[in-house]
Amino acid sequence: VTYWVVIPAAGIGSRMRADRPKQYLPLGDRALIEHTLDCFLDRPGLKGLVVCLSAVDRWWDDLACASDTRIQHVVGGRDRADSVLAGLLALLQQGADREDWVLVHDAARPNLSATDLHNLLNTLADDPVGGLLAVPVRDTLKCAGPDGRVASTPDRSLFWQAYTPQMFRLGALHDALFRALAAGVSITDEASAMEHAGQAPRLVEGRSDNIKVTRPEDLEWLARLRG
Ligand code: CTP
Ligand code: MG
């Protein structure tokens, strides 16, 4: 399977409360986003990689990977979906085929395993829609009422956590995101845009340690994991 990769990296990481966006915080000897990019670089089938950066980004240019000719960057947008759309549009404008696969992966997920990437690509290679890495929820879920008390307990077996990469056809994903955003629908991942377009993305079970670094303890946990 051949595919493009789009990495949204234009967020500010407010929940991390650090001195810079979380994708630029150190993990071992390098920035978090460099580990994320390494999950894709040098893999068979990769056609190219687009990183979506904030218009006021001050950190990317200082990274070694900024001069890597395999990586191009575009200016992202206000929300994650706007950033992803900018990346997809850049690929289409460069003449990428609408039928090509594109994998969208959060810059803040540096621990994607080669096995998960391989499974995703293999499982979806012939899929008419595409899909995403996801993990069945492990804890019992609670629906909160307005008073901060439990309103109900849904059937846990139906629920999955949506991870990335999410893999769809470039043209279909671009159109779905564009229309969902134009319609004012809240879009927090690529699959939800495809769902809004009437498609049912496939869930591909992945490892639970492909976490999105969101809070300080997530980065501490990953640092320990890497020794
Ligand atoms: N992202 C983006 N453009 C935005 C917002 C987010 O490209 N306008 C990216 C982030 O850089 C991150 C990924 O989308 O790699 C997942 O978003 P999230 O974890 O919410 O990151 P932030 O928005 O940066 O963090 P926070 O919500 O805590 O501010
Ligand atoms: Mg965010």
Automatic annotation (TrEMBL):
Belongs to the IspD/TarI cytidylyltransferase family. IspD subfamily. Transmembrane segments: none annotated. The keyword Transport does not apply. The lineage of its organism: Bacteria, Pseudomonadati, Pseudomonadota, Gammaproteobacteria, Pseudomonadales. Gene3D superfamilies: Spore Coat Polysaccharide Biosynthesis Protein SpsA, Chain A (3.90.550.10). The record marks R156, K212 as: Positions MEP for the nucleophilic attack. The gene is ispD. The record marks R15, K22 as: Transition state stabilizer. It comes from Halopseudomonas salina. It is an enzyme of class 2 (transferase). Pfam families: IspD (PF01128). Keywords: Isoprene biosynthesis, Nucleotidyltransferase, Transferase. The keyword Cell cycle does not apply. This is 2-C-methyl-D-erythritol 4-phosphate cytidylyltransferase. HAMAP family: IspD. It catalyses: 2-C-methyl-D-erythritol 4-phosphate + CTP + H(+) = 4-CDP-2-C-methyl-D-erythritol + diphosphate. InterPro entries: IspD, IspD/TarI, IspD/TarI_cytidylyltransf_bact, ISPD_synthase_CS, Nucleotide-diphossugar_trans. Its EC number is 2.7.7.60. Pathway: Isoprenoid biosynthesis; isopentenyl diphosphate biosynthesis via DXP pathway; isopentenyl diphosphate from 1-deoxy-D-xylulose 5-phosphate: step 2/6. CDD domains: CDP-ME_synthetase.
